[in-house]
């Protein structure tokens, strides 16, 4: 059997299955440690992002069997939404400090004036 025929018989790539297995493992670990996870500020947003990423990986595998164009579109919508949620989380958690607060917590910030 030539590689092209084998690829036609296998509707998805092996790496897609590995990513889906890792996503399922991540969800199990998240569920088992949800109490610790909830201590992260605005953790609900991270949960939504993780669900969207998991859904995108699921749709990646599913598109090999049915409705490839539609499921590919849904996969990319999920990825885009997950990215937007993560970006919003970053701004909510780290972007709310004033510059003076940020400078005081920045270990690389050098106080005083510099004259050369």
Describe the structure.
By secondary structure, the protein is an all-alpha fold. It has one domain. The chain contains six helices and no strands. The protein has helices at 3-9, 14-32, 34-37, 43-62, 68-94, 99-105. The protein is flat and about 50 Å long. The mean pLDDT is 79. Keywords: Membrane, Transmembrane, Transmembrane helix.
Short description:
With 116 residues, this protein is an all-alpha fold. It has helices at 3-9, 14-32, 34-37, 43-62, 68-94, 99-105. The longest helix is centred in the C-terminal third of the chain and has 27 residues, at 68-94.
Q: How many beta strands in the DSSP annotation? A: 0
Please bin the fraction of helical residues. over 70%
Tell me the series of helices and strands, N- to C-terminal: HHHHHH
Shape: flat
Mean pLDDT: 79
Low-confidence stretches: none
List the helices and strands and how they pair.
Elements: H1 3-9, H2 14-32, H3 34-37, H4 43-62, H5 68-94, H6 99-105
Helix pairs in contact: 2-4, 4-5
Overview features:
0% strand; 72% helix; mainly alpha; flat; 6 helices; 116 residues
């Amino acid at each position: 059997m030539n590689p092209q025929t084998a690829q036609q018989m296998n509707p998805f790539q092996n790496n897609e299955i590995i990513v889906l297995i890792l996503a399922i493992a991540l969800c199990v670990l998240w569920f088992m440690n949800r109490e610790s996870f909830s201590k992260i500020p605005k953790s609900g947003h991270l949960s939504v992002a993780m669900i969207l990423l998991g859904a995108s990986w699921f749709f990646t595998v599913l598109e090999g069997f049915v409705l490839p164009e539609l499921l590919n579109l849904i996969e990319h919508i999920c990825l885009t939404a997950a990215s937007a949620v993560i970006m919003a989380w970053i701004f909510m958690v780290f972007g709310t400090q004033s510059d003076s607060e940020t400078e005081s917590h920045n270990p690389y910030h050098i106080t005083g004036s510099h004259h050369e």
